Batch of 4 targets.
Target 1
Amino acid sequence: MEHIRTTKVEQVKLLDRFSTSNKSLTGTLYLTATHLLFIDSHQKETWILHHHIASVEKLALTTSGCPLVIQCKNFRIVHFIVPRERDCHDIYNSLLQLSKQAKYEDLYAFSYNPKQNDSERLQGWQLIDLAEEYKRMGVPNSHWQLSDANREYKICETYPRELYVPQIASKPIIVGSSKFRSKGRFPVLSYYHQDKEAAICRCSQPLSGFSARCLEDEHLLQAISKANPVNRYMYVMDTRPKLNAMANRAAGKGYENEDNYSNIRFQFVGIENIHVMRSSLQKLLEVSGTKGLAVNDFYSGLESSGWLRHIKAVMDAAIFLAKAIMVENASVLVHCSDGWDRTSQVCSLGSLLLDSYYRTIKGFMVLIEKDWISFGHKFSERCGHLDGDPKEVSPVFTQFLECVWHLMEQFPQAFEFNEEFLLQIHEHIHSCQFGNFLGNCQREREELKLKEKTYSLWPFLLEDRKKYLNPLYSFKSQRFTVLEPNTVSFNFKFWRNMYHQFDRTLHPRQSVFNIIMNMNEQNKQLQKDIQDLESKIKQRKNKQTDGVLTKELLHSVCPESPTLKTSLCFKEQTLLPVNDALRTIEGSSPADNRYSEYAEEFSKPEPAVVSLEYGVARMTC
Amino acid sequence: MEFSELIRTGRAQAQLLRGPEAPPLRGTLCVTGHHLLLSPGPQSTPDLWLLLLRSVDSIEKRVAGDSGTIILRCKDLRVLQLEIEGVEATLDIARSIEALSSLESVITSFPFFYRPKGLRLGDAWHFLPPERYYKRVARETDAWRLSEVNEDFSLCPSYPRAVIVPRAVDDDALARSARFRQGGRFPVLSYHHAPSGTVLLRSSQPLTGPQKRRCAEDEELLRAVLAGARPGARGFILDTRSAQAAKQARMTGGGTEAKAAYPHWKRLHRPLERGRPLQESFVRLVEACGDPEQSMDRWLSRLEGCRWLAHVKEALSTACLVAQAMEREGACILVHGAEGTDSTLLVTSLAQLILDPMSRTMAGFQELIEREWIQAGHPFQLRCAHSAFSHARPKHEAPTFLLFLDCVWQLGRQFPLSLEFGEGLLLALFEHAYASPFGTFLCNSEKERCLCEVRTRTHSLWSGLNQPKEQRKLRNPLYVLNPLAIWPSVEPQSLRLWQGLFLRWTHPPEPAEVAWEKVWQIVTGREETEGSQPTASA
């Protein structure tokens, strides 16, 4: 609280982000310990969590006041105009302090209190049990065992305590191999395909330099390929571009030499590194945030940002992995440099293609817990939870979510969850409201005592399960067991609902999903009503009391429509409001759209041709 | 002329390849006057494959050894490959298809021979759009009348017999105004927006020429429009050309309305692409969509380079501007470009879809197309003579109608519950506009259709489409009447490539279709349970 000097500023203007004229809403800005809140004259509230703020910028003073531009990690961009410069300065300074915390303990999760007792909190944390998940996959078994080598984080700090390795890999082999791998991240099991008896394994790059080799590492890889009784050779996928991998050799790192390892097939995949991805997203956002964007500039910007190319590269890598298992029955070892970014993307996406369980709500949570959280994807650094090195920030997990979204677009019936679920997860990797994504590895999380001091996100998402269901999901359909997406370029599109989730004017005005969801609900409700009524008729027939019957019937025919509970702590429903509100949205005034701004010139007395020059000029050039 | 003269060979053995998804078909190939047939024999399914020759856009032949290959690129963007036994047979069949698919005579075209079961000639030709629409207008206002001044098409060959004009203007004045407008297309009513009392008119450019000629009757006509709307009403003339292009048109006798001559009317210029550049845009987009191997960057740059989506955006935002001026500003609008038969119709028909809930119904949309495109004289025969594959240099071809359908598709995507028809209808209209067994899209104007007796000698597409068996394909199961105007977002992020059309054959969106079927099931399931409820409670 010591950072807050002004808690309330009146007469603040919120500018429309895409408006070329200076259209705005006037309201009051409040600053709380956790949120920035704007309430406009229509009493509409805009909540911005301090942790969501990526950058605050104070622009040069104008006649109407001092502009303050806030960019959020969930792609919300707000542009305020504060009447007095002093207020603006105070808010600016407070937000700078509040959005960049130095210590984990100052993050929202440590003060967030959803009114649960300790046992409920614990239950929440126990919802996802990875040991249970490995059991579901069928390990331990005769080929794979649980290793206690890392029980005290002695071999690898960034791995979880419980790791699954081939049955024949002894502890000395593991220790030897871990010394030959960057950050000690030796090859371990990520996913086991029961039917094919093939495995997805993951690790970091070997410290091979130009010629170094390590017998233990070679043995471990051999053990992995031997653990597959069907196919003796295994794939080693280096997810980096070949050039990057070669450059690493000069630093004593690098990639596996095929001559030293028996039965491996080595393959580069060519996904770019976190720095390329960060600047690619930046370019994408610059383009899509342009006021008065022309169609051609949009597409040339989309192309030059390279974003969709990167998404396709990740997807292609996952497909390669899935094919190796499904078609060739081969095990696959995946790594990049440190094995926590691209490796997590490819392993998790590959498993998602192979196993329909991960396409359920619960399964998707398990997948994130397993391949991202437990294997040490550095959420805190990649999402910039604390004031740290901006070069460590990168949208790696966002890319994973986008790949899943692209799969949902191609296979509308294959997923139990909908787009809103992905958006909500994306919201919370940055919100620091729940403990799941804090810290960079399991060890750090234990030190922070997150399970005692914070809450887990998953039970809260499950509570709102209805909101995240895909009405078209068909889990029975056998054809969707393994997804074989088509990655022709046509299939990759700009994910408007992610990058413009707060720019409502860009969204479709009516949502098919909502309406179908409601219909499904109604169908179920009606069917239940029919059953109720029929049983009542039976009962009443015996009693022959008609008067009461009609009264009862009338009462139950109009069931209350199911209302969705929304808690304030969750992101406001940014997609479309359900039924009632729909009417007002679709009849929304044309002023919400940009064509209106040419038309504002209508009311002016001057010749229209002159006043329209701006619009015309822009369209012809 | 006998078709048999053009058919060089009756039959050959062939194998047909229909893209990556469909299995190849082997059988006897046969060329008839209007069709290409492939009969795989009675035991196989389907037992007959049929292609309307009229729908062949370009043909490519290759021979090697003792067999040949013919690649047929169709107007609906399908690409078919025929492997034919025998070199002579291949060449003969190719020549026959070439000759038969490019016949220009209307009255020997297939619609004049097509006699489907279950339909009677003359059905659904009862559509008399101007007359029918006038009945609706007359209920709302008495400022307008139905004029039969064009009864014999002498005033304006591209207008229908009857047009809706201001009550205060007599037929003589109309005749003078017609002489002042290119092609005789004097301003007529396109749409009356009852809630605001404003009207949408369309015409062609005035023939002001370099001398800046004027026409008192034409000015009077537009004055009468404002007087009939409401006191103090203002008007806008929306020219679909740039200010410069409109000015240049004076050199060739055309031009645009002078400010001084038309008080209370203001001119706006919103240049829309038309003619050859639009056709080229279409061709380049289809080319880009035909190459599944290209890299992401190449695809995006070609998508940008073809500019198709930019045209979609311009068309939509111009229509929105018109709709907004009517609904919000209470202004009357006159739309014209040069001839007033292309972009003009695009704008007026889209504006109506945005404003008028009736035009968003199945029947209303068909009526809109009949009234604002077919009867309004969009030269379908010239514009749709060739699609995107033709090697011939385009003369009059332009995909204006396709651009309209794409814009409607974008509206449907943004308002998925507000259109009674689905993508299926739009695809069907695209196909039939370019090649059809029905007579609806034949000829360039009502006058030509009368001369060819299209109404009495061919079947109407509408009666074909409105058969019950077609409905599930064409209707939108989620439709609920939306009485409000629908204002789409025209930002590039909100517009999408119409995959269902442009990638329909290269890239069948099968899972999406399965999902759509599921939507139908949910919706019909709901109706069934709802239907069964009263019986349970009764």
Target 2
Amino acid sequence: ALPSWEIEGMQQRENAKNPKQALQVRRSSLSAWQIGERTAGPKTADLKSAQKHEKGKQQSASDRAGNSTQDHLEQALTYFERGKSSDNFNEVLQKHLATVESIALQRGLSPEGLDVLLNVALSGHLVNTRILKCLIPASVIAESSVVSAVSWLCVGKCSGSTQLLFLRWLIAMFDFIDHKEKLHALYGFFFCSLQDEKLGMQPHLQALLSLYKLFCPELVSITLPAKMKTYFKNSESLWKAAINTIRRRNQGTSPTSQQLILGTGHPQSRKRKWNTQLILPACSTDANNPTRSKEINHADILSHSESFPVEQLHTFSQLLQNIHRLEFPSQMGSVLRNSLLLHYINCIKDESIYLRLYYWMGQTLQEECTWYKLDNQQYEEEFKDFLDIVYKTECFLQEGFSSCEEFLYKSLPLWDGFCCRSQILRLVSWIPLSSFSEMKPHLCEPLAQLFFTSSLYFKCSVLESLKELLQNWLNWHVMQLDVESDPKISPLNTTLSGLVNSVAELIHFVGWIATVALHLENNATFLLYFILDFYETHSCPSLVFICVRIQRALKSLPFVHSFRYRTNLVAAKENELIKKTILQFKFSSQTYQEYNQYIMAMVGCLWTSSAFQKDIHPQGIRLDPEVLKKTRVQEVRNSFNIVHHPALMGYAILFLQQAWPEDKTLNFNLIKGRRWNWYLEYLYVQGLQGLKLFIESSINRVSQVSQTKSGNVQV
Amino acid sequence: MYKFSYGNLKEYSRLLSAFVAAEKQKGLAVEVGNDLGIKVTLSTLLGLKGTDQDQVAVLVQIASRSQLPFENAENKVVWSGWFCCISGDDLLESVPEDFTCLSLFLANGAESYTAIVGSWFQKTFDCYFSRLTISPLNLAWMAAMWTGCKVDSHMAATELVFSVPCIPQSLDISYAIHSEDAKALWDTVQKTPGEVTQEEVNLFMDCLYSHFHRHFKIHLSATRLVKVSTSIASAHCDGNIKILHSKHLIGVLTLLTELAISQIQ
């Protein structure tokens, strides 16, 4: 972007020649300037000469750039700087003014440009109002410009209304000023001007100071009438809309841009209906406290039980110190930006807080949802940002919002799968645990429709978000268990069985869509990765080995994935054993039967070389001999055992090479008898601990010597 | 609205006056209580309820004080708005204590004032304003229901406006019927007096559409109904309402409250 280039260029040239002098001129003028002193004449001239110097440099740089609009801006700035204030109405002035205004509104002005224009505006130029109104920064405002602008106020060359407009501008742009140490030193100047006859203790200055006192009481040294209620006109509205637009254009990721969205501005100049901008409310103290309107209670003063204004809350230690007297802001939506208040929400068990947040978020989500709107381009970015904020808050609180859940249920059927995709899928992962049959029509059906008709990438994203959903449910449940350390029988049973049912149904759903997806995407390995990732994540007693179905769909598993697949199985088996003892949860006997059948099928594949046989389970992997003939895979029965399995064949080859180095033909049939055991040991040494666990827990070797074909299965 | 108290209406009036004056004036801040050119009053409208459980309606009026000294201090109302909720408790679940539920807001006057008043309420009471859009289905219901209402005095024509998306500008078709004819048609359609079903509404509209088609060969059912005007009231899909007959005020407001609540939920 151009502004940053300019700054870079400036710095280069400043370092090149005569930079120190220029800077020193400024610094000396600043240090000589004391609070309350009126300075005029030579100091300001020095400033101006320094600026001319820099302006000249800037102009040459831009000529090199060759950008024509930049040229116009440069010319305009130079003109303003050197022009006399007498010819105010000539065309040249107007033309340059128009240039500056248009560039300001399009891109914002660089710090140097702002510097020049500020000085011009406050030094008595007659078009200063127009100039001040277009002073929109593209990036930051140099503190030195503000300081020099304030010095102009001392000179007294501009009118009172201009001074006031400058103050309004300063308030609106305060966040953009890069450093503020010198500004802090200037507060004394503002306080002195209050005693000035011209300005006087105007209500707006008083109000400004009392507002500031709310934020930083230690900086405001004068006394102000307490509890004074004053309203300012929303002075930022002149600039706010333009600032927002330029932010988006310049893609500013600076922290100041984030702060901006915390506005309370409702642009009034719009002809359309108001409330069109999605703006998170700012944290402001609740003005609607009924105790304020009553007389001051003496007991309250004595006990210092005044509420702590929420604007002053900046650190965690402040939160802890004032937690007993902290009030929530007047608009609950503002907590989304404030992690300290989110901590506070976690502690307080007040229904009205949740209700307020629920109403506000539900309404905002519904109103701003861009796929209901006709021309949604400009709003989509705002909505995406908002969804991101909601997601981050949910991650912070580690639970989902019910208003968000309802929004998803309402809008997923209408979603095109494209708009705000990553945000929506992430929010799906935070849907609170509930009965799956309730969720099914709202979540699963629209999601499945989109899933089957979309790209591979979308499918993987959906699988990932469902994996996260499962993880969140399990985590939440574990937290519940921790909280209720002394579980009562019936709630624990219901929640646990509810959890298991929902989890089981979710896994079943995922298994279904995964299988179909593999067919559709022709067993794409990318997809397979995500599917296996899903199954690897959960560690609850798994009822599903729909993996088996996947195996059936494939004629040969790729190496990596089937390896993981084995570790899945083993991990599940191990966890199931652990959980059984801890939870004393009753699995139905049907579950055990299914489980046993899966184990037998697996063992049949891996060990006893009887793949695809004897499996009466409907989800098993028995295949008719005719089908097997069609696959034209020789020796189907042992094609998946630990020697011939594609995933493990590499190991078998290495083993054979080590055991019979002189034998060039790889005869896998050599691996039997006691060599089978050696091979098994070899595999364990290579790190296949999962395999070891599985075999040792599922297979009971009858004898160490004769083992190849016989193996009993034990659960 | 959170922590809205009917007892504090005077205080709210003062605060809102200052806020409105600050927004309207140029530059200077406004202190509460000073003499301003604007006076805002909040008051209750006691009769505007459907059932006893409904919250009391609140009226907000902005009056500009005349600046000329010799004129009587007759304040001219420049904007008014009211919050109400008519027969809403059937549809809303029980609302907790600190909350006041007034789901319908009607405003009359310049939109800039509506924006100012709305933003003050949002900031102070943590509520949310959204525009009520009326779907063609609901407009058809209104057409049917209002046509069926008995009006003693002179009846204006019943008019339906349809919008057809065209390039470059959308086409508006206005279909006006004598209200006696419309009422006669509705009376034949409606089976049970006092009850209106979806089938009856559809039949009513289909009759009107087929009549139009017979004469103009245009299928109005393929267009979008955007405005309905009857002698009782008129409604536009953007949410602009005109209530013409005071006798049926509560009925119209009940319907609008129902629409507002369904949009919230």
Target 3
Amino acid sequence: MNTVLSRANSLFAFSLSVMAALTFGCFITTAFKERSVPVRIAVSRVTLKNVEDFTGPRERSDLGFVTFDITADLQSIFDWNVKQLFLYLSAEYSTKNNALNQVVLWDKIMLRGDNPRLSLKDMKSKYFFFDDGNGLKGNRNITLTLSWNVVPNAGILPLVTGSGHVSVPFPDNYETTKSY
Amino acid sequence: MGVLFGVECWLDGCCVGCRCWVFCWERVFDGWMFCWVQVLGVLLGAGVGWMGVLLGAGVGWMGVLLGAGVGWMGVLLGAGVGWMGVLLGAGVGCFVGSGVLSRVRCRALSRERPRRGPAPAPLPPSRCLSGPAPRPGVQPRSPVPVSSPAPRPGVCPAPLPVPVSGPAPPSRCPSLPAEAAVTRRKRKRERERERGRAGAAVVAAVAAMLSLDFLDDVRRMNKRQLYYQVLNFGMIVSSALMIWKGLMVVTGSESPIVVVLSGSMEPAFHRGDLLFLTNRIEDPIRVGEIVVFRIEGREIPIVHRVLKIHEKKGSGGLSTAQSIPDVGTLQNGDIKFLTKGDNNAVDDRGLYKQGQHWLEKKDVVGRARGFVPYIGIVTILMNDYPKFKYAVLFLLGLFVLVHRE
């Protein structure tokens, strides 16, 4: 320890190891935490159209419009190792051609410090709900769930689904409104 | 239970595909990246194994046999298990062949050494002319047998080889006979200290810098120590490679750790963050996951989030996340998906190839499962400023050279 260089070297090495230990500590203390909370989703309107898919392959596909409400309290998920929550509302259903379809209708980034209580009414979907084909018409069972991706300061990136989902049937005809 | 452990390889053009299973865990490896990795692994393993042999040869026959045997066992075993085994076996072989066996040889030699009295003082050349004549019958006590007769006064005998009684030169093992227990312990400590050195670029830089003053200890190293340093370096390189390839195997992804290069996923990931990826076949791609994918024709992978998936009804397809995949058929049914960066306003169809609307499993490098912030900045700096990379390596080598610890 008799030169500036060796002192700087040990200081640097020590601080690196301390930071590494801290990061690992952050990770290990929150790795096995339960991050699911109850969620309430309600659907007020479902409309169905059949148009050419302008967002992708130019085929006539079913286009759905869903108006929904979400209520959730995500306060308990935020802790010292959560940087943000990426919330997304996804619709899951199966059709004649496809065994499984999942489409994200709406998403939101909730940073630490933002209001964790979600209380949204009459939200319109952010993204176009196009099906790969014409499978939405007359589909009895389309399940909407709210999930979130927990982005930590350091550690695992889990995908958690909120407990509470809603299933809606789609109308049998196009351009029809179904009110609930 | 069927076969507990097995490997089955096939040749596909110039590439080798392998399928190996241990108990219930099965994985199929194929593709061009495993061709050159296997070749490289065998060469590296064989090379490191032979380095052990050579070093063992310096230590003695036992060293040669054991080093060669273990080294080659490693190569053969490795060829059956894969490159990982090659490196592990050869690395273990060369460690055994050099480090441990040199100690065995040391101990063996010191036990063989015959009892010898204190070495006689060196005869000054003037004594035979002016000094008293040695009595006939008395042989000078020296380890070398004297073939010439007793010297007559006035005539200088043939010069006897003078036994060295000064301090023993700093060599590793007693190839020289005169060695006390004290020096042995000192040398053991020295050896331990040297092993703690980070080897690496030292040897390469040595040749260029031998003229400098502060490299006295490097100049004092003899050939065996140099071999040992090179071997150490070889082991470090091979263990680093092993760890990386082992991670590749465990995660199933060809690049298990990636650095985020762009800001399209802010505020979740910033430039310079590290992501840990997995690409297991049993986990199908679902909406909301962060995937790292590569577009055909572009080499830089992109980190974005899945927006939409459509999974076809396949023969081995999954209709729900709980069904057990059929091994051997397409694990994911036939999933096509669309991605979008969190910080982008539109989805990625503008980024895909002309006419491509969906991504498939084959484009995926991996799914992001873990995240560490800021660490990747070093990689970005080294990529953007290659001079910085060389400067860091040079300074590292210089630092290791100057300080023994």
Target 4
Amino acid sequence: QLGREHQGITLRGSAELVAEFFSYGINSILYQRGIYPPETFTRVQKYGLTLLVTTDPELANYLNNVTEQMKEWLYKCMVQRLVVVISSIESSEVLERWQFDIECDKTAKDDNGPREKSQKAIQDEIRSVIRQITATVTFLPLLESACAFDLLIYTDKDLAVPEKWEESGPQFIANSEEVRLRSFTTTIHRVNTSVAYKKDSVP
Amino acid sequence: MAQFLFEADLHGLLKLDTPIPNAPPARWQRKAKESGPGPSPVGVSPMKPANRSHSSSKTPSKTPGKSGSKIQSTPTKAGGDRYIPNRSTMQMEMANFLLTKENDPAEESPTKKEQQKAWAVNLNGFDVEEAKILRLSGKPQNAPEGYQNNLKVLYSQKMTPGSSRKNSRYIPSMPDRILDAPEIRNDYYLNLIDWSSQNFLAVALDNSVYLWNHASGEIIQLLQMEQPDVYISSVSWIKEGNYLAVGTSSAEVQLWDIQQQKRLRNMTSHCARVGTLSWNSYILSSGSRTGHIHHHDVRVAEHHVATLAGHTQEVCGLKWSLDGRYLASGGNDNLVNVWPCTQGVGGDFAPVQTFTQHQGAVKAVAWCPWQMNVLATGGGTSDRHIRIWNVCSGACLSAVDAHSQVCSILWSTNYKEFISGHGFAQNQLVLWKYPTMTKVAELQGHTARILNLTMSPDGTTVASAAADETLRLWRCFEMDPIKKKEKEKANSAKTSIIHQSIR
């Protein structure tokens, strides 16, 4: 255990950490916002917290695909943003938009030496962000209708679009309220989190 | 006679304007029967299948002048019909744009290009030249139909029907007394009431502390903060009931003598407000907004004898176990830490257990009086669960969803039950049977969320302080008179002499 602490962060390691964070973060959002029934989630220990991940095989598979792809793109530093869009199934209106901005230090390459930052410090930071995501339920407006989610990834213009992916618009919310959450950094990748939600039209 | 019947038959067969009695049903009749039990379009009455059901098929109604009754079959998928089965997967706007845009030559002046670029950046939030947005096609199966987002159900919970099994004892649904608590701070993280063994209820109202004598009903103002903008953040009675510890927003821990109504000590060691206090004979433990817990030995001048650093956010729940061996702490970082009473090797305090299962702030922390090492904890709005732990093994013995923010838990000494205080939407107190975790009763009355609970020294009454600026006293653990006599007999022999003489 001691060895891992002092290993430092490599580009590959950083990409894995951030992709993993996205996987757990998206699962938390799906659970907390009630997109999927809570009984389809199970508890796992991660980052020193008890987190909920889905047991639905299709959804898990879908998220795995995204996580794997994100790992690759993070390693190449070609991804700028990950967005979770929550929209009503019937009206296709976007109700909530979780935005994860990624700042990548392009000077980092695998042949450079690993950077100095302990795993523990990064874990602490990730833990704070995930706790904040959980706590947002206290102020986010209720999602009245059944909702579906979508994942958007902002990549560099010249990235080759892989099979199964297609181009899309930003899917902004009209008349939104935005809240910035904490951010965390691995010294190679920095992730800023914010959530935008539809302002209640009737006071 | 028969020839007339024959003639009538012949005539009947030859006439074409009456319905044929035994004919096979016409196509439109068959259709009507098929869709009969399902959606019944407006205007179809079962008695008249003829004309009206004709218009249930998709051919337009031929009767002029009749207002078009909206004919809709129940949509199987959102807004789908037989031409476009699933509207939500179509990209109508995109298709329309591509079909209708003219093939313009790209003749634009540089300024126009810049302007367009500026617009694009503004609209999209990023530079289209630098980045593009990708979406994984083929969305995963959505939640099964009929699944209603149950957070809505959760946050708009109505009255739950009473349990079918009658309680074996009578629990009054109205409070015994309602006391006014004006200016009480509506802050979830503070602990503003405590009941002493001498039957005084201490209540902190903003910057003052009042004592209410339960026996006589007398009210005394014990103290008022001198500095402006400083408020009381916690109160806690020492076991004997003659000293009261007071935590303030200016990070002080004060000790007051009740008899003389004087301040004995002002202990400063924290850097931020002291939201929670707990006594273990002469050791006073205080939890602060920084997440640190300090132990104070109130007998000596150098009072700050230990620091426990286990939380990264405000400590809102703090309770020593009844045997004084463990200290349980809950914080806004969703953690529950169980600390030993003695330092480990190396002189540092480290928790023997850390529980991370709660998804919200843990303010409700309570030790079971009849079972050693059993701890109950309750989570805030994001969590809403009550969990029972065995602190030796670290196992979660049971967890129950209370559907509402849990602010406090108290175990009963008279019954094998515990009571929890809640917030939105019903602001109720719930009595639970242990270990079956069934609801015994729900006490309603508060019109805003409950902030704190405390129990009377005889264990019969629970006082609840809420954001509606009232304190309500609930006589929910009243002992059966026969059982009471048995208990008193068992408790002390010497007082029985006094009883006899009084009689």
